[in-house]
Amino acid sequence: MDNLLKYIHSLTLFSEESWELLQPALSKKQYKKNEFLLHEGQICNSLFYIDSGYCKSYYEIDGVKKNTAFFFENDIATNINSFGSGEKSEFNIIACEPLTAIIFDKQKLFEAAKQTNEIEALGRNCIRLFASKQEEFSTLFKLYSAQERLNYLEVNHPDMVQRVSLSQLASFLGVARETLSRIRKRRTAV
Amino acid sequence: MDNLLKYIHSLTLFSEESWELLQPALSKKQYKKNEFLLHEGQICNSLFYIDSGYCKSYYEIDGVKKNTAFFFENDIATNINSFGSGEKSEFNIIACEPLTAIIFDKQKLFEAAKQTNEIEALGRNCIRLFASKQEEFSTLFKLYSAQERLNYLEVNHPDMVQRVSLSQLASFLGVARETLSRIRKRRTAV
DNA sequence: ATAATTTTGTGACGATTGTCACAGGATTAG
DNA sequence: CTAATCCTGTGACAATCGTCACAAAATTAT
Questions:
Q1: Could you report the per-residue pLDDT of A147-165, keeping only the tens digit for each?
Q2: Is the model's pLDDT at B71 over the cut of 90?
Q3: Does the structure show a pLDDT above 60 at B29?
Q4: Min Cα separation B143/chain A (Å)
Q5: pLDDT for A84 beyond 80
Q6: What pLDDT, on the 0 to 100 scale, is given for residue B177?
Q7: Is the pLDDT of residue B119 over 70?
Q8: Cα–Cα distance between A185 and A188 in angstroms, integer?
């Protein structure tokens, strides 16, 4: 739980008492590679703090998998829409490596948040960070070409480019695997 | 303020007392067409509830304006990253029509939220909705081609397609104006 | 009402991308 | 270690898209 506590302190003021009150809402879980954190059709009642390993979210449309996000250590993974509205998830979240997550249970988190303002603020900050991240990647597509998007990732998220395979990254960047391979070739040639 | 109150009630439980407590954080403002709600370089200390009219967010890169979002009646417009972190905004929000907004002041909203859980829940819900919307549009680019994206907007956001001019919409969809014109031609021909 | 400005449509052409196909390299399982 | 599987690179070709240019249409200002 050390990483999580550091993460929380980086976000907001958090007393030891709040930390104690938060405990009932938390549970640690190990996932094998290719194990689902969230399955299409499920309702998402959790925030997944990624302690080690990484996972991705993807839609499956006509049998084709399309990656929409990657979540690494110190990220919160969730389906924010399903989590908030109680609707079924339209996408999957799956471990790409052996993964350890600390799971925030929605119901228990809300109960804990009633008891102290700090937990409430934590929840709000997590959602806000999540929204910022979505905004960042959403913007990428409107501002930049495929080549510039790769460039952006290499500068701003080098870990992603290093850890995620080309095929998987291509899907996230919204281009064909072959295209990304050629973009990379063009770039390194320059 | 009628519209806002309805909007709030659609989101969360809200007593008359909370409504009273919220008032100091609210102010109504009229914007002319092409007036800025938020300017690049400013820190965003507001949530803008759009009462009437609509606005857009856009980046200006090398003199070229790129639209990243449109906000219509009953939407909340803001720079969620700047609002949360206090960093300067990298983009603008500008009225596309004469516009009436009800502005939530960050500082006063936080003070009000300390007094009642309902206001706190309202703030959280606004941010969550905002995150959902970002996620929705972010996903569009990873799942669909330009033509399919237009299709999606026509089905799921017909108001946007109707009210926003082709050139402006093209920028939002990440394609050239000419391309969108041709896509539309192709589609109506079928 | 008229002029000025903005928006849209379209042709031409080169650049980029998607798709199919296949081969070589890397990784994983047994 | 060997076989099977997955991942990556590349050629060919068609489809799509961006850019430039200009004219027509629509909107706005005077």
A1: 999 999 999 999 999 999 9
A2: yes
A3: yes
A4: 6
A5: yes
A6: 96
A7: yes
A8: 5
Contact call for residues A71 and A77 (beta carbons, < 8 A): yes
Most B CBs within 10 A among A71, A135, A145, hence the mutation to make, goes to A135
Tell me the H-state helices in chain B. Answer: 2-11, 16-22, 80-85, 106-115, 117-143, 146-156, 158-163, 166-173, 177-189
CA of A183 to C1' of D28 (A): 45
Q: How far is the CA of B149 from the C1' of D18 (A)?
A: 18
- 3-class DSSP state of A182: helix
Indicate if CB(A107) is under 7 A from strand D. Answer: no
Is residue B77 within 8 Å of residue B133, measured between CB atoms? Answer: no
Could you confirm whether domain B2-133 is CATH 2.60.120.10? yes
- Model pLDDT, residue B190: 44
B10 close to A (CB below 8 A): no
The predicted model gives A169-188 an average pLDDT of: 91
The radius of gyration of chain B's CA atoms, rounded to the nearest angstrom, is 18
Percentage, residues of chain A above pLDDT 90: 90
Return d(Cα B101, Cα B97) in angstroms, integer.
12
Q: Give the CA radius of gyration of chain A.
A: 18
Which positions of strand D lie within 7 Å of protein CB atoms?
Answer: 7-12, 16-21
Task: Tell me the torsion sign for CA atoms A63, A69, A71, A72.
Answer: positive
d(CA B58, CA B55): 10
* pLDDT score recorded for residue A188: 59
The residue among B114, B51, B43, B15 whose CA lies nearest residue A124 is B114
Instruction: Tell me the per-residue pLDDT of B156-173, one tens digit each, with 9 for 90 and over.
Output: 999 999 999 999 999 999
Q: Under an 8 A CB cutoff, do A128 and B129 touch?
A: no
Query: Are A130 and B132 an interchain contact pair (Cβ–Cβ within 8 Å)?
Result: no
Query: What count of residues does chain B have?
Result: 190
Q: Mind spelling out the 3-state secondary structure of A66-122?
A: EEEEEECCCCEECCHHHHHHCCECCCEEEECCCEEEEEEEHHHHHHHHHHCHHHHHH
Q: Which nucleotide is nearest to A183 (CA to C1')?
A: C16
Q: Does domain A2-115 have CATH number 3.40.640.10?
A: no
